[in-house]
Write a structure and sequence with these properties.
By secondary structure, this protein is an alpha/beta fold. The chain folds into two domains: about 160 residues, Lyase, Ornithine Decarboxylase, Chain A, domain 1, CATH 2.40.37.10; about 250 residues, Alanine racemase (TIM Barrel, Alpha-Beta Barrel), CATH 3.20.20.10. It is built from twelve helices and 21 strands. Strands 4, 14, 15, 16, 17, 18, 19, 20 and 21 form a nine-stranded mixed β-sheet that branches. It has an eight-stranded parallel barrel with strand order 5-6-7-8-9-11-12-13, surrounded by five helices. Helix 5 crosses helix 6 and helix 8 packs parallel to helix 9. The mean pLDDT is about 95. The chain binds ligand LLP. The site of ligand LLP has 21 residues, from helix 10 and helix 11.
């Protein structure tokens, strides 16, 4: 459920008309609903209660500092994968002891900064990384709390580019070697082993791959405890999928996920950490764009929008589907036709949808891409020197621009011409 609905014939974010925002901010823009973000975060905390737990929002899915502040103020922790994301979390007021640092290629510099700034735990993904972290911690005179990310060799049954739990993927340490790697970790002077970490992929639409992975984590935890390690935290990663179409797609709900977690891991007395991104942010955001032209091609009509693949890359990168709505509600029984929905970028890949059945559109009409809150703005680029799209946050009947559209001056100023040219 989200808070993007038609009211009085116009699509609203909560109680604010998207057309009104478009008039003030210009198009394209991303718009997020505070009520939806809040609701999705709470679904997870309720689903895991009464187990001790921390919901660490995966910043990579939506990293605007205002959104992080909203979630942080509700008590959320954060999952970061770069020192840049770490700094965002801190700028949003999230204390270091609620931040977990994931990622396969943390640099010594990043480790240094995070250890100095305060961190809940590093999710370590390889032996060289483990040794580097120990060195950095020793140089600072501290011990770095770690969980080791294990690779359970489980098929997440999702898009191949976002599956991470198979042995051929670059992530984690093979679970078969975990005991020997934990033994080495315990010997390293700069580390303090606190947990086990696993993340098998994103946009999972079934519980069974999670269950298979968590069952292996359970067995491993018992073995590691028997080996003498104090495993007090289990980080289960993110990955729960969302419905991208409103037809028959029904991925499991946080409550189903929580019940399964309790069943598989609930008796271990460990604190559960999860790292959801998409389920919190995905359906909390839309991308609003304007029709520039309707172009009649041969055997097809193109809807040419002012948003493009640089603003929302998911359709072009993963063949992802995003529902497209008319911002002005089409009357019941209004005619429709198939459109190829495209952006202005000079690539055929700049296509959002082919032969999509949509209400009739004319120049100047507004459209909204649903489910664009996750991996939308964060994956945007300035390809074709198109300014990054602004972000807007709505709460009830008011809105604020939470990232402004850069001016062309600002964009051009970032380049410099060397004196010898
Ligand atoms: N934790 C780790 C270690 C991750 O790598 C990810 C996502 C998450 C948590 C959050 O997963 P989520 O709950 O959002 O599924 N750009 C792609 C998705 C990439 C996901 C990368 N890792 C897309 O647009 O579908």
């Amino acid at each position: 459920m989200d808070h993007f609905t038609y009211k009085g014939g116009n699509l609203h974010a909560e109680d604010v008309s998207l057309a009104e925002i478009a008039a003030q901010v210009g198009t394209p823009f991303y718009c997020y609903s505070a009520a939806t973000l809040t609701r999705h975060y709470r679904l997870f905390t309720e689903a895991l209660s009464p187990l001790p737990h921390l919901v660490c929002f995966a910043i990579k899915s939506l990293s605007n500092v205002a959104v992080l502040k909203l979630l942080g103020d509700l008590g959320a922790g954060m999952d970061v994968v770069s020192i840049g994301e770490y700094l965002r979390a801190r700028a949003a007021g999230v204390p270091g002891n609620r931040i977990v640092f994931s990622g396969v290629g943390k640099t010594r510099n990043e480790m240094h900064q995070a250890l100095q700034g305060g961190i809940r735990q590093f999710n370590v993904e390889s032996e060289p990384e483990m040794r580097a972290l120990s060195d950095v911690a020793v140089s600072l005179g501290v011990r770095a709390p770690i969980a080791i990310r294990v690779n359970p060799d489980v098929d997440a049954r999702t898009h191949e580019k976002i599956a991470t739990g198979k042995k051929e993927n670059k992530f984690g340490i093979p679970i078969s070697r975990a005991r020997e790697v934990y033994a080495e970790a315990a010997r390293l002077p700069g580390l303090e082993v606190v947990g086990v970490d696993v993340h098998i992929g994103s946009q999972l639409t079934e519980l069974s791959p999670f269950e298979a992975a968590f069952t292996l984590v359970r067995e491993l935890t018992l073995q590691l405890r028997a080996d003498g390690h104090a495993i007090t935290r289990l980080d289960l990663g993110g990955g729960l999928g969302i419905p991208y179409t409103r037809s028959n797609e029904a991925p499991p709900l946080p409550n189903d996920y929580g019940a399964m977690v309790k069943q598989v891991l609930g008796d271990l007395g460990a604190e559960i950490e999860i790292e959801p991104g998409r389920l919190i942010s995905g359906n909390s955001g839309v991308l609003v764009s304007q029709v520039i032209y309707v172009k009649h091609g041969e055997g097809r009509d193109f809807l040419i929008l002012d948003a493009a693949m640089n603003d929302l890359v998911r359709p072009s990168m993963y063949g992802a589907h995003h529902d497209i709505l008319a911002v002005r509600e089409p009357p019941a029984g209004a005619p429709s036709q198939p459109y190829d929905v495209v952006g202005p970028v000079c690539e055929t890949g700049d296509t959002f949808a082919r032969a999509r059945e949509l209400p009739l559109f004319a120049e100047g009409d507004l459209v909204a891409f649903r489910s664009a809150g996750a991996y939308g703005a964060v994956m945007a680029s300035e390809y074709n020197t198109r300014p990054l799209v602004p972000e807007v946050l709505v709460a009830r009947d008011h809105f604020a621009v939470i990232r402004a559209r850069p001016s062309y001056d600002e964009i051009l100023k970032r380049d410099s011409i060397p004196p010898w040219l």
